[in-house]
Amino acid sequence: MDIAVGSGNPVKRRAVELACPDARVAAVAVDSGVSEQPVGHDETLTGAITRAERVFETGDYHFGVGIEGGVASFSTDTETASDSDLYLVMWAAATDGTQVGHGAGPSFLLPDRIADRIHDGEELGPVMDDVLGTEDIATNEGAAGVFTDGQVTRTDALQSAVTAALAPFNCDLY
């Protein structure tokens, strides 16, 4: 099976390889059609779907996969959280050219000092690099790896999103 992932990021390619161990995975950079820092679930999911559809059209693939990381809030009724809490979110989409499946990975609450900078218009990757003194964390362990002390890396988190996006193609219940 041949799958294309709509990104040149090696972490995203590896996530697809882990989700589909018997597939040949090509990484083809395509534009997401959304902002560099997607905000909200809708924009983040739209970026993933756009990447999946665009990469599928670039060659003879069984599936096109798009992965998009963003930041979003969740509505809450509890008194311990605020609607202004900001989370790292990740969405994946997969298409066979006819059907589109999508799924989310885990979400991580952003620390206030990072969320404040995102609210001010900065992008998560560069903010994380600045706070940690690293370079290009998005192609390494990612914010997920930092927040979980390596228990869940960015690759792990994205793999779960890709697996969820492929569920409609792998299960007859859909």
Outline:
The protein is an alpha/beta fold. 38% of the residues lie in helices and 20% in strands.
Report what the structure shows.
There is one protein chain. By secondary structure, the chain is of the alpha/beta class. It has one domain: Alpha-Beta Complex (Maf protein), CATH 3.90.950.10. 38% of the residues lie in helices and 20% in strands. The chain is built from six helices and six strands. The chain has helices spanning 10-19, 41-56, 112-119, 124-132, 142-147, 154-170; strands at 2-5, 24-27, 63-72, 87-95, 100-104, 108-109. Strands 1, 2, 3, 4, 5 and 6 form a six-stranded mixed sheet that branches. Helix 1 (10-19) packs across helix 6 (154-170). It is globular and about 45 Å long. The two termini are 21 Å apart. Residues 6-169 form the Non-canonical purine NTP phosphatase/PRRC1 domain.
